[in-house]
TrEMBL record:
Residues in Small ribosomal subunit protein uS7 domain copies: 286-436
Transmembrane region(s): 92-111, 123-149
PANTHER family on file: TRANSMEMBRANE PROTEIN 186 (PTHR13603:SF1)
UniProt protein name: Small ribosomal subunit protein uS7m
Pfam family name, one: Ribosomal_S7
Keyword Cell wall biogenesis/degradation part of the UniProt annotation: no
Bilayer topology term: Multi-pass membrane protein
Main location per the UniProt record: mitochondrion
UniProt keywords, alphabetically: Membrane, Mitochondrion, Mitochondrion inner membrane, Ribonucleoprotein, Ribosomal protein, Transit peptide, Transmembrane, Transmembrane helix
InterPro entries assigned: Ribosomal_uS7_dom, Ribosomal_uS7_dom_sf, Tmem186
Similarity-based family: Belongs to the universal ribosomal protein uS7 family. Belongs to the TMEM186 family.
GO CC field: mitochondrial inner membrane; mitochondrial matrix; ribosomal subunit
Length: 444
């Protein structure tokens, strides 16, 4: 019994924490604990061996979990990396062909099948091609194709090509990268080297011919002097492509009502020093500007003649005002006068709201049959259909009547929840109700 305990105790010092935990569990726990406390070096060795064995069992899983949980953002890309990888893999085929063709051609030359000069040409072509591709592969070893960083800019993942032309990934801490001042300069300044303190591998980053997606992160990781004027012109901002505004710019606030609300709540002071995008040419902070009226004017316009469309809409509003004033003066009681709306813009808003559909029919093919399936309609689409139906109803009226008068009649009818457009909306809703049995085809 005592010999067995001594044998297991000796194994615990040599094999790590697995056997020591077994002896602690079954064989003389007090004796083994006192021995481990007595010798700090042995305890350190046991902990080191146990941690090393644990890491040896699960190194890939931990690395994959860390890589999967980290949100990597692309900050650099070399566009010709796929072509470079293909050429690097191509160097092995000329080596094999040259190794077979040169002895074969020399043998055929000895047997007088062809001349020795032909064998020399075959050998020269094979050796030249092999040497050229090998030199190209040597120059492009450890060429960086992609560079990723996490959200905190604390880790960097480098994807590069190895000697066989295959993609390899390495994850390093930004603080562990060697400063550029400590590295030798590249030949002809075609690239700048990237190196880590842990290993001797030097990666090649061709920043002058690559695409930098995040200049701020790239400068913080590799240094401010990396991005030159030539490189800055090639930088790409994925968040706002083809735009001069970065992602930190906010949208302009053109409505005076929203500005007053921000002043009352105190949120206006929070964005006082935040860069703001320039307002669009069709945005206006005037009290006379109405987005719905501007959109309605664009729908009235034909062949780009917006001045004529604006004049027609204004004349239509003038006719609405005259008709409503006649009703106002003909009203006998104050209650009737209070119900009459005199603002043409408010009447247009009310007319559009009354004409907006809630559902629409979409053709969906199932089993060779095309069904009209009712689906909900978006808000933008409903506003478009309401104004489109109103203008179609206006243009379908008599051609002898001017457009502003017909528009005024149609807007007043729609505001009162009457007219062709309201009937068309109810007819569409009735068809959707009739086809509700096919509504499940929307998800199938």
């Amino acid at each position: 019994m005592l010999r067995t305990c001594r044998f297991l105790k000796s194994l615990s010092y040599t094999r790590g924490g697995v056997i020591s935990s077994l002896t602690h569990h079954r064989w003389q726990p007090a004796l083994l604990q006192s021995n481990i406390k007595r010798s700090s070096q042995v305890g350190t060795l046991v902990r080191h061996c146990s941690s090393k064995s644990a890491l040896a069992q699960q190194p890939a899983e931990t690395k994959e979990q860390d890589d999967a949980t980290t949100n990597w953002n692309t900050i650099y890309h070399f566009p010709s990396i796929m072509l470079t990888a293909s050429l690097k893999r191509l160097k092995f085929y000329p080596m094999l062909c040259t190794g077979i063709a040169v002895p074969l051609s020399i043998g055929l030359g000895y047997f007088d099948v062809w001349s020795m000069s032909t064998a020399e040409v075959v050998g020269a072509i094979g050796f030249t091609t092999t040497l050229t591709l090998s030199l190209f592969g040597l120059i492009t070893d450890n060429l960086i194709g992609f560079v990723y960083c996490d959200d905190r800019l604390s880790k960097v993942k480098i994807s590069f090509l190895d000697s066989k032309g295959k993609r390899q990934n390495r994850i390093y801490s930004v603080d562990e990268l060697v400063s550029r001042t400590e590295l030798p300069k590249s030949f002809l300044k075609l690239y700048f080297p990237v190196k880590n303190h842990e290993n001797s591998d030097v990666y090649k980053l061709v920043h002058q011919y690559g695409e930098i997606y995040d200049v701020h992160a790239f400068n913080k990781i590799f240094g401010h002097e990396v991005v030159t004027k030539h490189t800055a012109s090639q930088c790409i901002v994925p968040a706002a492509r083809m735009s001069q505004y970065g992602p930190h710019f906010i949208e302009p606030i053109v409505s005076k009502e929203k500005i007053d609300e921000l002043q009352k709540t105190g949120d206006l002071s929070k964005i006082s020093h935040v860069p703001i995008k320039a307002a669009l040419s069709n945005q206006n902070c005037s009290v006379f500007y109405d987005p719905l009226v501007a959109q309605f004017t664009n729908y009235v316009m034909k062949q780009g003649n917006k001045q004529l469309a604006r004049e027609l809409v204004e004349k239509g509003f003038e006719n609405i005002k005259r008709l409503q004033l006649e009703r106002y003066h003909l009203a006998e009681s104050e209650e009737e006068k209070a119900k009459i709306e005199l603002n043409p813009r408010k009447l247009l808003h009310q007319a559009v709201e009354n004409c907006r559909p809630l559902l629409q029919l979409t053709p969906i093919k199932r089993g060779g049959v095309r069904y009209q399936v009712p689906v909900p309609i978006t808000e933008k689409r409903s506003y478009f259909l309401a104004m489109k139906w109103m203008l179609e109803a206006v243009r379908e009226k008599e051609r002898t009547v001017h457009f502003p008068e017909k528009m005024a009649w149609e807007i007043l009818d729609a505001a009162a929840n009457q007219g062709k457009v309201v009937k068309r909306k109810h007819e569409l809703h009735r068809q959707c109700e009739a086809n509700r049995a096919y509504a499940h085809y929307r998800w199938s």
